[in-house]
């Protein structure tokens, strides 16, 4: 019987259990997919802890790549044997998944299953952040927090390719080195340096057109202070905890700033936007402009170790689980 990682109560890594899950025959419009590799994302931590609550018990995880084993009635886009991937599975930490065809894309030749599992959620996020939320291009100066993380590693390479000047915050010297290899022009060690002060120095007082902040509570004031008037504050995560004390007048005080709190789901909600986003990502990876760094691999049963590493700020690039 296939196994899956189940959360039966919200909490630390001790709530993760590896259990038998009966195989589910695909219903109309569904695929049954054998997982080859599974992506680990910070949102999985929010689901495990209950920061983003959902009905218990549930299988954890959103991102995976694998092979179609069986198709349900009326499926038109996929066949048995197709290599597929998704960033929006309800329970991807599993040896086998049965889910609607609408959440899957085909993985092109040249992109391995492990790469696909490492990049669908993080890479499609980088894509909408840089191409849709704010259209980054030459002449822009951007600040990207957690620049050596999963989303950060992909987004900073992509922003560099789009011609922007990229400033990235990182938690250590080793991560700073990696960020520079990924095309980050200026690194800031945000555990010891004043981010807004350093941004002002780097930009000679001009500051940034857009700030991408997924760290949240510990960084957002520095993010706002790093923007030029009419700049865009993109708060897209909260790895340090939810933002506390935000007041809309902070946007006025710093020069009529814009702010958004986007999520990937809204940018890939239709077949058309999902295909457009995934194809742009596959294209930029195939061109070699963006490399997918798999920083760590864990066996699916060792998922607790993977979560501890991610939450402990020990990882760089993407972390994957192998069933
Ligand atoms: N809204 C969306 O559509 C969307 C989609 C995908 C991801 N996200 C968000 O993007 C962020 C990155 O996701 P990811 O999966 O790629 O993770 P990640 O960046 O690989 O890991 C998180 C990184 O955040 C930094 N960090 C700063 N303070 C931290 C703290 N107190 N605890 C833990 N980490 C801290 C660490 O890097 P340093 O050591 O360099 O500080 C850590 O490596 C998450 O906040 C996630 O929720 C949002």
TrEMBL record:
Gene Ontology CC: cytosol
Native organism: Terrihabitans soli
Keywords: NADP, Oxidoreductase
CDD domains hit by this protein: QOR2 (cd05286)
NCBIfam families in the record: PRK10754.1
Residue ranges constituting the Enoyl reductase (ER) domain according to the UniProt record: 11-321
GO MF assignments: mRNA 3'-UTR AU-rich region binding; NADPH binding; quinone reductase (NADPH) activity
Protein name per its UniProtKB record: Quinone oxidoreductase
Record InterPro entries: ADH-like_C (IPR013149), ADH-like_N (IPR013154), ER (IPR020843), GroES-like_sf (IPR011032), NAD(P)-bd_dom_sf (IPR036291), QOR-like (IPR047618)
């Amino acid at each position: 019987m296939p196994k899956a990682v189940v959360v039966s109560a919200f909490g630390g890594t001790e709530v993760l259990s590896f259990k038998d899950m009966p195989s589910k025959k695909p219903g109309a419009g569904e695929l049954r997919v054998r997982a080859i590799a599974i992506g680990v994302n910070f949102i999985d931590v929010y689901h495990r802890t209950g920061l983003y609550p959902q009905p218990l018990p549930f299988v954890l995880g959103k991102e995976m790549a694998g092979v179609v084993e069986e198709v349900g009635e009326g499926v038109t886009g996929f066949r048995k044997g197709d290599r597929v991937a998704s960033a929006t599975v309800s329970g991807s930490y599993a040896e086998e998944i049965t889910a609607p065809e609408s959440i899957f894309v085909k993985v092109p030749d040249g992109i391995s299953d492990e790469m696909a599992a490492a990049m669908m959620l993080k890479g499609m996020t980088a894509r909408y952040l840089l191409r849709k939320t704010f259209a980054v291009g030459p002449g822009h100066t951007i600040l990207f927090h957690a620049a050596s993380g999963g989303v950060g590693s992909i987004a900073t390479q992509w922003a560099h390719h789009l011609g922007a000047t990229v400033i990235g915050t990182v938690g250590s010297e080793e991560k700073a080195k990696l960020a520079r290899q990924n095309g980050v022009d200026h690194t800031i060690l945000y555990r010891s340096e004043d981010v807004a002060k350093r941004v002002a120095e780097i930009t000679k007082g001009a500051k940034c057109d857009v700030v991408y902040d997924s760290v949240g509570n510990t960084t957002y004031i520095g993010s706002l202070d790093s923007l030029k008037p009419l700049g865009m504050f993109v708060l897209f995560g909260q790895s340090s905890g939810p933002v506390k004390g935000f007041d809309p007048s902070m946007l006025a005080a710093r020069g009529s700033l814009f702010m958004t709190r986007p999520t990937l789901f809204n940018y890939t909600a239709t077949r058309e936007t999902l295909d457009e986003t995934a194809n742009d990502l596959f294209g930029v990876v195939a061109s070699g402009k963006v490399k997918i760094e798999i920083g760590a691999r864990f066996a699916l049963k060792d998922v607790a170790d993977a979560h501890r590493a991610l939450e402990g700020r020990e990882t760089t690039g993407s972390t994957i689980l192998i069933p």
